[in-house]
Amino acid sequence: MLSLQNQIVLITGASSGIGASCAKIFAQAGAKLILAARRFERLEELADRLGKEFSASIHLLQLDVCDRTQVESSLQSLPEPWSNIDILINNAGLSRGLNKLQEGSFQDWEEMIDTNIKGLLYVTRYVVPGMIDRGKGHVVNIGSIAAYQTYPGGNVYCGSKAAVRAISEGLKQDLLGTPVRVTCVDPGLVETEFSEVRFHGDTERAKKVYQGLTPLTPDDVADVVFFCATRPSHVNISQVLLVPTDQATTTLVHRRN
Q1: Do the beta carbons of residue 151 and residue 250 sit within 8 Å?
Q2: In this structure, which CATH number among 3.40.190.10, 3.50.50.60, 3.40.50.720, 3.20.20.100 belongs to the domain 8-242?
């Protein structure tokens, strides 16, 4: 198992859900964390918890990955001890709406494409060249089962996650001959703020998504990310599709009530 002691790990979308769970498991392993998200107060709370629990070394970035100028300035002005990123976890992402395409919201589309595709590209573009120069690094993209199977109303979201899968495969090919690894982790139903964001804060509607079944937890996904990151350096786990036992496809789930 590869040691993560003092490895610098950048996690986007770290303020909640899978990102926060990744922060916890990597902090526990002795990694140094750069936590990036738009909600800075949430980051401060998380950093405080991890500092007390694991004496973790943490640098915070208030960052909107959709803003290329902000991504560039934030990453290029990292303090010297934090500038050599070993592991990048591209976790920032969201879904908006569940409308038929012909009834879709342009604003929802823009937000999903800007965050899920362009944001991931911006951060990767500014981090990977340094990994190549230093001769080590690992990019972990958090995708979705939606990359494999579309579902009614999922049109643009599914398209954006199919793009993440294709970009991950393309990056792996482009990095062939370098020691930099690329992994795409694609979860099914995970109980996070995902559905609440999708339904624009409608918590009752969001709860129904997970009703009667046992979904994955953010910790379950973080555990898989951690496993991928700690394999020996000659091992690259390219793709992982993980779903709850109660889920077979994007639309086929078992509910007990």
Answers
A1: yes
A2: 3.40.50.720
Gap between the Cα atoms of 112 and 125, Å rounded: 19
Domain ranges of the chain: 8-242
HSE-up (13 A, CA, CB side) for residue 40: 6
- Gyration radius of the chain over CA positions: 18
Of 122, 148, 151, 157, catalytic: 157
Amino acid 37 reads A
Number of neighbouring beta carbons within 10 Å of residue 256: 8
pTM beyond 0.85, yes or no = yes
Instruction: Check: CB of residue 89 under 8 Å from CB of residue 127.
Output: no
Q: Could you tell me which of 49, 53, 13, 12 has the C-alpha nearest to residue 29?
A: 53
pLDDT in 10s for each residue of the chain, 257 residues: 899 999 999 999 999 999 999 999 999 999 999 999 999 999 999 999 999 999 999 999 999 999 999 999 999 999 999 999 999 999 999 999 999 999 999 999 999 999 999 999 999 999 999 999 999 999 999 999 999 999 999 999 999 999 999 999 999 999 999 999 999 999 999 998 888 888 888 888 888 889 999 999 999 999 999 999 999 999 999 999 999 999 999 999 999 87
Overall residue count recorded for the chain in this entry: 257
Instruction: Establish how many alpha carbons lie within 13 A of residue 75's alpha carbon, considering only the half-sphere containing its beta carbon.
Output: 25
- Give strand pairing partners of 140: 89, 183
Question: Catalytic annotation on 157?
Answer: yes
DSSP-derived secondary structure letter, 101: G
Half-sphere exposure of 105 (CA within 13 A, CB side): 13
